[in-house]
Design a protein that fits this description.
9 strands, seven-stranded mixed beta sheet, 245 residues, two-stranded parallel ribbon
Length: 245
């Protein structure tokens, strides 16, 4: 089978409640694309039926693949595994809660086609043209903004929204970046963006439609402190990376 035009990577941990609906929406959307495609669901060891439900969905959709990691290491590890095993010419990862809807995939594909110089596309909730349909509560939103400001300065990164879980890569860039990427936790996005910059890839921030998921598992205090610690460490990790592609 020829490699598809598009791979969509979905990391999944304890997603039994949301995953079936998410995969149905993705299948309905992708089946309307003119591009060839695959959906790669990377299931970390869960305490519910995430793996069974993903496997069942793959039986009725030939373009679905399920990767069972058999361990729970973190979102960064799951995305890395999925990206490195994806076969698409364009590789995009998105969250299982569909905070950014599938329709935005077509926008990113169109941008890649119109801008051959772009290697990495980053969904940004901070973009002036982004449409935020449902926001977090005020305290959580404000703490998130402050943390993102600190994170960007500690890591030395110019991208305004590092944590939006909607990013796309041309395959050569994805392979070069993720073969070097090491962090397993939520701060992996920062490492990915710093690696893209160090390796000389062109990154663009695009507006997205975004709806806050009330079921977010990110603890704004605990996880922010861990991400901050990782951001300090990631600068050392990236500094050691060879620029040779």
């Amino acid at each position: 089978m020829d490699d598809p035009d598009l791979s969509i990577v979905i990391p999944a941990f304890n997603e039994a409640r949301r995953l079936p609906g998410t995969l149905r929406q993705l299948a309905a959307f992708c089946n309307e694309l003119k591009s060839t495609w695959e959906v790669v669901v990377v299931v970390e060891k869960s305490g519910d039926e995430t793996l069974e439900l993903a496997t069942e969905a793959s039986k009725s959709q030939a373009n679905f693949r399920v990767i069972d990691t058999r361990v729970h290491r973190g979102k960064g590890a799951a995305v890395r595994r999925g990206v490195l095993e994806a076969r698409g010419r364009i590789i995009l990862f998105m969250d299982a809660d569909l905070s950014v809807p599938p329709e935005e995939v077509a926008v990113f594909l169109g941008f890649f086609e119109a801008h051959p110089e772009a290697d990495v596309l980053v969904g940004s909730r901070k973009h002036a043209q982004s449409r935020i349909l449902k926001r977090q509560n005020w305290l959580r939103q404000r703490m998130g903004e402050i943390f993102n400001w600190i994170l960007r300065r500690v890591a030395g990164i110019r991208v305004r929204d590092t944590q939006c879980g909607f990013k796309a890569f041309r395959k050569p860039a994805a392979e070069a970046i993720f073969s070097r990427q090491q962090l397993d936790g939520f701060a992996f996005d920062v490492e990915v963006l710093l690696l893209a910059e160090k390796l000389g890839y062109t990154t663009r921030e695009l507006p997205v439609r975004w709806t806050n998921s009330p079921d977010s598992r990110v603890n704004i205090v605990r996880d922010s402190l861990k991400m901050l610690k990782d951001a300090i460490m990631v600068r050392r990790l990236v500094a050691k990376v060879s620029c040779d592609r």
